[in-house]
Design a protein that fits this description.
It is built from 14 helices and eight strands. With 317 residues, it is α/β, with parallel strands linked by helices. Helix 7 links the parallel strand 6 and strand 7. It is globular, with a radius of gyration of 19 Å. The two termini are 36 Å apart.
């Protein structure tokens, strides 16, 4: 951390910008953390793809299959691998509040830039907003590091823009990954954009959000490293053009990626997103690695169809 709790919002506003990616965690054939493969990926993502920050040990990273010690190890690996070249936001999401706080304290001590905490599954739906306010206030009272909220249908509900506007008043809440329909995140941007950075994981909506809502942060999913190569940095290119106000040029480049998006979408089995993305990483020359149970791996037929679509999608290798 390069800030104290009182300056968390200001620091985030100044530095939490650009394209941030949710890192897939590679596992070896024996299902151990592939630490060297992970380091190679981060080096490639920073040096060759120009990615600005990384969301570590989230759902993309299969945190649900890891021990607490392994999640902490992922934090340490990412901070060391980034070595000040890119920022980090560590997923401390868990149903157990003690685990959330333990992970948050570790992230802060290890030198992470921020943490992100998913809205929990609630077993009782009475006084929901007050419960969630108490939840995030409790976490914020225990650590000084900047916190990003995260609302996603996986929780069984979506936090309303009005609730998020109240949460934005918490001193160390600096951002939100708001995985909701566009009208909801546009409304939150209107309500609280002066106090927290609002973002969503949809790459297909990213350009319009820059141009129409004034966004400066993509937070975050896997497209920054699945849609790009060292020789073909079109997401980075259209983002930079959009930031410079050159919307027509940015749209032309954004739209040129449609064959790549379609190749990914059309070959991804709905029940196997992790295995599919890891196999796509392998095709790109990155370290994808295995998935841990209970996740399912691709069949040989699914791999063949994915490989054929990859080879025809027009990415320059």
């Amino acid at each position: 951390m390069n800030y104290d709790r009182k300056s968390a919002k200001t620091y985030a506003r100044q530095t939490m910008t650009g394209t941030w990616a949710a890192a897939l965690m590679p596992f070896t054939p024996s299902l151990d953390l592939d630490e060297e493969g992970f380091r190679r990926n981060i080096d490639h993502w920073i040096e060759d793809l120009g990615i600005d920050g990384f969301f570590i040990a989230g759902k993309q990273g299969e945190f649900f299959s890891m021990s607490i010690d392994e999640r902490k190890r992922c934090f340490d690996l990412a901070i060391d691998a980034c070595a000040g070249r890119a920022q980090t936001i560590m997923s401390c999401s868990d149903q157990n509040m003690d685990v959330v706080i333990d992970l948050a304290r570790h992230a802060q001590k290890a030198g992470a830039d921020y943490i992100v905490v998913h809205a929990p599954v609630l077993h009782f739906f009475k006084a929901q907003d007050e419960t969630l306010l108490n939840y995030y206030r409790t976490i914020a009272d225990k650590v000084d590091i900047g916190i990003a909220l995260w609302s996603h249908p996986d929780s069984g509900y979506l936090m309303s823009p009005e609730l998020c506007n109240r949460l934005a008043d918490i001193e160390t809440v600096v951002a939100i990954k708001y995985s909701v329909p566009r009208p909801m995140y546009a409304e939150l941007t209107r309500l609280a954009g002066d106090r927290i950075i609002v973002s969503t994981a949809s790459e297909e909506e990213w350009l319009d959000n820059v141009l129409e809502l004034g966004w400066r942060l993509y937070l975050c999913s896997s497209p920054p490293y699945l849609l790009q190569t060292k020789q073909d940095r079109r997401m980075r290119a259209y983002t930079d053009l959009a930031f410079a106000g050159r919307g027509d040029e940015a749209r032309a480049i954004r739209d040129s990626l449609d064959p790549v998006r379609n190749a990914l979408r059309s070959t991804r089995p709905a029940e196997k997103p992790h295995a599919h993305q890891k196999y796509w990483q392998n095709l790109l020359g990155q370290t994808g690695g295995a998935v841990r149970p209970p996740l399912l791996d691709l069949t040989e037929d699914e791999k063949a169809r994915t490989r054929a679509a990859f080879e025809a999608c027009g990415l320059q290798l």
